[in-house]
Amino acid sequence: MIELAGVSVTLDGLPIIADLNLQLTTGFTAVIGPSGAGKTTLLKVLLGIIPPTSGQVTVAGEPVTGIHTAFAYMPQDSMLLPWLTVAQNIALYARVNHQPVATKRVTELLATAGLSDYRDFMPAQLSGGMKQRVAFLRTVMNPAGFRLLDEPFGALDAMTRGSLQDWLVGLPQDLQRPTLMVTHDIDEAIYLADRILVLSARPARLIADIAVTPTQRDRHWLATQAPLHAQLYDLLQKESQALANA
Ligand SMILES: Nc1ncnc2c1ncn2[C@@H]1O[C@H](COP(=O)(O)OP(=O)(O)OP(=O)(O)O)[C@@H](O)[C@H]1O
Predict the structure, then answer these.
(1) Fewer CB within 10 A of the end CB, N or C, for the chain?
(2) Domain annotation covers residue 219
């Protein structure tokens, strides 16, 4: 279990996160909040890149005191290495850690993502959606038990984004892991997550923690979720206004 206990972060004198208490266990959790609220900062605190000004983060009871290996992180930009092929990018974790590359696993993952024909392509030869898929597969190859995804589809057009969301929903069981995903997209949060955390305007506090329990997670079900969408929209709207007035 990952636990934040009374976590506050101040950067350059600016309070960014205020007294955040949170437990993350299994499932897919989405984090939404107004732009600039501190969502990426929260991921960096979990990763150990930014130390809390006060409070504590623990992973399986152990305090996080610096960069550690509990998380597989996918940044906003795909950050593929342009001089490596698709397959080499996916296997980056093994390469960096001087481990043998699980070629069979890479081949299987490429097939799962519909990228079998692109294994020897260079990143510059891929569309935006393909790059994000490759970046996600690279995250999957990281053996860490918990995934942190920062706006993974933020830069994509609506259709590409939609097809990647469908792909994530349909991921085989063995590729699923506990995940915390930052997103600006309310429908994306509802579609993908079992739990939605809503952060306030800066400094970020937890203002809602909502369980999502679909009967059948598909787009027909998503279309019935207008009341939840409206509830989340109203919360974000209020907080965005607060941020604008700050
Ligand atoms: N190293 C830093 N020093 C000072 N301020 C910072 C630093 N990093 C981020 N900030 C500020 O912290 C606030 C939160 O930034 P953060 O990137 O966490 O927000 P966010 O919710 O992820 O934003 P967005 O939704 O726009 O991606 C912003 O006002 C930002 O300017």
Answers:
(1) C
(2) yes
Q: Which atom of ligand 1 is the closest one to the Cα of 38?
A: 18
Q: Please choose from 7, 10, 12, 14 the residue to mutate so as to test ligand 1's pocket, defined by most ligand atoms within 8 A of CB.
A: 14
**What's the complex ipTM?**
0.93
Strands 195-199 and 206-211 come out as: antiparallel
pLDDT tens by residue, 138-153: 998 998 889 999 998 8
Buried b vs exposed e over 182-213: b needs ≥16 C-beta within 10 Å?
bbebbbbbbbbbbbbbbbbbbbbbbeeebebe
Q: What is the CATH number of the domain that holds 204?
A: 3.40.50.300
Nearest to 8 by CA among 65, 75, 58, 57: 57
Q: Which domain holds residue 38?
A: 1-66+188-246
Q: How far is CA 116 from the centre of its chain?
A: 25
Number of domains in the chain: 1
φ, ψ of residue 84 in degrees (nearest 5): -110, 150
Residue 125 lies in a domain: no
